[in-house]
Design brief:
It comes from Sanghuangporus baumii (Phellinus baumii). InterPro entries: NAD(P)-bd_dom_sf, SDR_DHRS6-like, SDR_fam, SDR_PhqE-like. Belongs to the short-chain dehydrogenases/reductases (SDR) family. Helix content is 43%, strand content 19%. The protein is an alpha/beta fold and 234 residues long. The protein has a 7-stranded parallel sheet with strand order 3-2-1-4-5-6-7, sandwiched between helices. The longest helix has 20 residues. It is globular. It binds NADP nicotinamide-adenine-dinucleotide phosphate (NAP). The site of NADP nicotinamide-adenine-dinucleotide phosphate (NAP) has 28 residues, from α1 and α4. The site of NADP nicotinamide-adenine-dinucleotide phosphate has 28 residues, from α1 and α4.
Length: 234
């Protein structure tokens, strides 16, 4: 089976949520070096400790090196400086998102433009199931996600043979939902679970598997993988 043995992985957005899951899963898949990037030094430091504790609590040991780098994905100079500091990597994963186009589209675009990806490496971006099934009031998000989705296919052509793919999660239990009161959030998760074929809302670790696949499989590029618990069928 392919692993990430000896590989270096940069996860921009790795201080929480899906990116946190990808960083942890990369270490568990034997990556030699994993770097998480986000805009908050405090969140990075907390994430570094939590990832190590999570792995220790699971009873597994990893040999890879884990570190963090501050980057403001709204600022292309900051993104370029990050990629310069980190240098060559095998895999770039982009899960950062807060405001709309600046972080999710332009940040990812700039990183893909300047990243030094080693032969056999990959870039994996992130959209959301709104890209194929927008809800009422979600037009702007759908437009943004569509732009990142199309960007993925464009980059796969421009950067070939570097592989470029995009993951499209459905609902995932991450810090993204923290601004909501817990009772509202829990009700949304409970209601969503009832509508999903898999009957539960995903944990970040379940979504991380799709990113690992895109890093490891040498024959996938220009693709969107929907990891939505079967939402689109109901
Ligand atoms: N959770 C879901 O249900 C869900 C569903 C579908 C799609 N998605 C998409 O998946 C992506 C990741 O979501 P998530 O749930 O993992 O969110 P999250 O837990 O809120 O994580 C977002 C990450 O982005 C980073 N970030 C935010 N602003 C940044 C900036 N200016 N520069 C650099 N990093 C920045 C955050 O770190 P700092 O705050 O430290 O900067 C954090 O590490 C998002 O694009 C989201 O829209 C999520």
């Amino acid at each position: 089976m392919a692993s990430l043995s000896g590989k270096t992985v940069l996860v921009v957005g790795g201080s929480s949520g899906i990116g946190y899951g990808v960083a942890k899963a990369s270490l568990l898949s034997c990556a030699a070096k994993v770097t998480i990037g986000s805009s908050s030094q405090a969140k990075i430091e907390s994430a570094l400790v939590r990832i190590k504790n999570d792995i220790a609590a699971s009873g597994q040991t990893v040999e890879g090196n884990l570190s963090g780098e501050v980057v403001d994905a709204r600022d292309s100079a900051s993104v370029k400086a990050l990629l310069e500091r980190v240098g060559e990597v095998d895999h770039l994963v982009w899960t950062s998102g807060d405001d709309f186009f600046d972080v999710r589209f332009w940040g990812a675009f700039t990183a893909a433009q300047v990243a030094k990806i080693r032969p056999g490496g990959s870039i994996t971006l992130t959209v959301g199931s709104v890209v194929v099934k927008p809800r009422k009031g979600w037009s702007l998000a759908a437009g943004l996600m569509g732009a990142v989705d199309s960007l993925t296919r464009g980059l796969a052509v421009d950067l070939a043979p570097i592989r470029v793919n995009v993951i499209s999660p459905g609902a995932v239990k991450t810090e993204l939902w923290d601004p909501m009161p817990p009772e509202v959030r829990n009700k949304i998760f409970e209601d969503s679970a009832k509508t999903l074929l898999v009957q539960h809302v995903a944990e970040p670790d379940e979504i991380a598997e799709a990113y690992l696949f895109c890093m490891k499989c040498q024959y996938i590029t220009g693709q969107r993988i929907e990891v939505d618990g079967g939402a689109k069928y109901v």
